[in-house]
From TrEMBL:
Gene3D superfamilies xrefs: alpha/beta hydrolase
Domain of life: Bacteria
Domain AB hydrolase-1: 14-87
Record organism: Methylomonas koyamae
PANTHER family from the UniProt entry: ESTERASE-RELATED
InterPro entries: AB_hydrolase_1, AB_hydrolase_fold
Name of the protein this chain belongs to: AB hydrolase-1 domain-containing protein
Length: 87
């Protein structure tokens, strides 16, 4: 499962940030404050990067979206705004 950092903020709707290949959730830290008053923020790391197990790295994981859906289900997220780059 990808690692995540869920930031409870003032907003009700969730905004999920997914980093591009070779980066982790830290790529978003300068952008997140602009949305923190309006959204519940969730930052994800891809398998094999950031706080996840680096041995899980495989290029094919970018084609498998189920782990990300599992994180969102675990957080009881529906109707989210998804933000990503280099995807």
């Amino acid at each position: 499962m990808p690692s995540y950092l869920g930031l409870q903020t003032k907003g009700g709707q969730t905004m999920v940030f997914v980093p591009g290949f070779g980066t982790d959730q830290n790529a978003w830290h300068k952008i997140v404050p602009a949305f923190a008053d309006a959204y519940r923020i969730v930052l994800l790391d891809h398998l094999g990067s950031g706080a996840t197990d680096s041995s899980a790295l495989a290029l094919c994981h970018y084609l498998n979206l189920q782990p990300y859906a599992d994180v969102l289900a675990h957080l009881d997220v529906s109707g989210t705004v998804l933000v990503g780059h280099s995807m």
